[in-house]
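Minutes, project huddle
Topic: does the predicted pose make sense with zinc ion bound?
PN asked that the exact inputs be recorded in the minutes so nobody has to dig through chat later. Recorded below.
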Amino acid sequence: MEIIHRVDYRDSWDKGLRNRLERENIKYKISEDFNKKDGLVVFNISESHPYWNRIEKKLRGFLGWFVYGDTVDTCFSDAEILNSEWSLLYAQNAKKYPEPFNTWSVNPNNYDQFCNKCGTHIQARPFRIQKETNWGNFHFFTFIIGVGIFTRKQVFDVFRRNRIRGVVRNDVLINHTGKPADDIFQLMPDRTTQGGLVIGEKVKVSTCRKCGNKKYPNHGRGAMKYRREPRLKEADILYTNEWFGSGGRVAWREILISNKVSRLILEKGWKGISLKAVEIV
Ligand SMILES: [Zn+2]
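Predicted holo structure (tokens), as shared on screen:
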């Protein structure tokens, strides 16, 4: 596994850093800021990169001043995923919005018991979308706001042929007609675990003052640890009982997939998805 840091900072706060990144062959993106005088610089660096030690000192030294943003993530090799009994499934390829676009983020029309403080919810109705999608080479997408993994009919056909247990093919509705899209479906586990997340001492769990639900921060470094619990025997695809997400109105349950499912995903080479190994303890 490789630990990756996504670092972001305002260009004016460290004028020399972009030159140093160029010298070290580290690619960055710069976006023009709202005031058009400054830019937000974003780059990814692995902890195995020779420049990491020097950049780390900088981040540690200045982080308290909020000069640099640092988000930690972990990349697993295909071999590590194939060796892992369970993995986490993430859709990438975020290009679309749920409809109705104007109100969805404050009042999601498909959720019941939506807590507008922490974002926990029960999905009671299908997501709505503007129009059919042109899949191109991709097999999965997620929304820019909101949670959910969306895929094609052919993926469910493969799941059915391979007797993948615990997954529901949920319709997605075209907003202006109210009819189901032909080839967009939400991949939804039909059950959750009983709860088996193992967290380190330093992990801060937040309890919502409004609804009382607990949320765990997004898991970034290394493999998530999960206890072997009875529900893992019942299905190949499951929601975690635990909610994740830092800060306001966004909350999701992670999706656990068995080795049988991750093997299929890698064999088929489906795009628009990423997998992270889980350590079962
Ligand atoms: Zn809440």
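Observations noted during the meeting:
- The domain at 2-75 is CATH 3.30.70 (Alpha-Beta Plaits).
- Residues 199 and 239 are 17 Å apart (CA to CA).
No decisions taken; revisit at the next huddle.
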